Amino acid sequence: MKNGRIIGYMLSENELIDGCRKGDRAFQKALYERYCRKMMVVCSRYSKSTAEAEDVLQEAFVKVFQSIAGFRQEAKLETWITRIMVNTALNAQRKKLYLFPMVDVEEINLPEEEISIANIHVNQLLDMIRALPQGCQIVFNLFAIEGYSHKEIAEQLGISEGTSKSQFSRAKSLLQQRLLKESTYYERYGEAKI
Amino acid sequence: MNDMERRKFEDSFKDAFDQAEISPSESVWTNIELDLERAEGGKMKRRILFYKLLAAASVAFAMAVAGVGYYSLKNQPVMSGLQTANSNQQHSADEANQADTSGKASGEAENVNARNTTADTTPEIATTASNEKQSTINQAAATFDGNVQNQVASVRKSHAQQSSRSFNSSTDNVSLVERQGTFLPTGQDDTHQEAIVNHSVSEPTSITSVGVWNPTSIDQLPSKVKPTHSLTGEEQAAEVDPVAVLMAKLEQREKELRAEEAKENKKNNFSDERLWTSVGFAAGAFNAGSSEMSASATAFNTAANQQVTASGVTYSMGVSVGTRLSNRWVLQGGVNYQTQSSDYTANAVVGTSDLQEFYAASVNNADKVDNRILSSDPYSVNNSLRFVTVPMQAGYMVVNKQFGVQLNAGLSTDLFLQNTITPEGGSLDKTTQGRGEESPYRSVNFSGLFGTELTYKIGNHYRVAVNPGLRYPLNSIYKSDTGIDSAPLTFDVGLRFRYIFQP
Questions:
Q1: DSSP characters for B323-361?
Q2: Mind listing the pLDDT tens digit for each residue in B183-218?
Q3: What pTM does this model have?
Q4: Which residues of A touch B1 (CB under 8 A)?
């Protein structure tokens, strides 16, 4: 039971949860091994750097292990862990947002052309999201990827719904501009920059 | 771009990240493990703290039973220790005197000359120990007094002179004599001095031919410099160097004093007492002489007046926590359960309207006065008050050694619990009055506290304390509408047992 990576893939979700509830370090490591890579993506989307993302990942996993006793299994374990990751990331970002509060931003005219991200590597997409302004990054993640409504985002971040919408629009247009450049590059040179 | 395309744009991002994976660095899990262990360690610490408190409370209970006897026994060795220290000093002085006498026997003329050099040699002795605490060393030098210093000077002087005389006698002695002869007048550093002394002590045979020494003083030597075999007078004199002997004695005494001081410092180390908890109980008496009742002299009022002016005894027990604010100042707080009990004589009873039940006349029945008051033969009544008190005191440590003296002053919030009136004889029922709107007692009272705390440290973690103190109520325990003003002054003596948390 020493190697969490080995037992992690052999155990069912319930077994993992039970083991973690008992505080068994091997089960905790198994759970971590199972979800850490996916969760690292979640944390990275809300962070500006890998180090920052790892800090959030660490803090969130500690919360997972400390509160797994209260997990009632109404949702999938992965969904529950993702929610903890997002909340922890938002808590970390809130401190910055307190200093630089989100405000309504001017809408940028979206490009008329259809832009596909099919040929763009996920790492590039991640870089693009990370390059967004702080508020845009958070709202885009919450709205486009996590699937929250603007109302929920507004409540969670303590901003107005209009601010959430305008931040999202700005994020989207910035991403589209960037994607447009990338697709032009791809058309010219035939491969994506990774 | 229409809405559908826009939705498609967002979904494409969602899909792109859905199955994406990035490996975090290995250090993340290590840090998670550390965080988890730290959190678990915190829980464990709290658990340990609980058990420590439990253990301290248990020991305190045992101490409460046998505390006083143990205390007096524990104090005796301290006194005898002091006496021993004094007798040691006396003994040293005696030894020095004897050495002086023997020194005189060895050569009066040289001794006279040597006395003149005392002023020069004394600083050397002080310098020997100057690396350590000066006061202690001065004390060490003082222990030997002028006689010893004279003797040292005398022997050194004679030794120096004899050294020069014996210069030609033996080549082996020359080197040693030269070393010692050079050392004494010039006052070289401690290391050299000690080296010579050690050399002389550990190798007594190497100094056999140095100087002439009176064998009568050999019994007063430290055992390590005594010759192990029996010799005749001159042989013994040739066996032991008197300089080495006296230096060894000095060194020995110095070591003893240093050891004593180190032991004392260790004992008196109060700086590690930063936080403590204590349990204890106290017993005392209160005097309600200043209490008064503004009412007409009916039989009922006479009984009630006797109740409020009766003096009695008080007991309390509780726990407290203390912390040091600075080197001398401490802050202590806690929770106590306190009872005040007094007896008074009543000559009236209070009955219900149907005269089926009767109670002893007391302040508690004041609202029943209109119903039925009946005069009776005098009978004794026990009046018991119970409080939960929350004292908060600042203390100043006058003495903060192993034995400590602390002056405390502060404020106590006294929460009234209940009053019980117990008529003696069994003909009347016991009655209890709690707190509340209808109660004649104030629910919250305040008292000023002043007291001293005499403590004695036992081991690293424990300290027992006796604390006599005064308690003066800042308000009457009776509500103002009762017309009674009672502020009994309480004097009690508590025995506390402290558990000191080590940092």
A1: EESSSSEEEEEEEEEEEEEEEEEEEEEEE-TTSS-EEE-
A2: 343 344 444 444 334 444 444 434 333 444 444 444
A3: 0.37
A4: 110-114
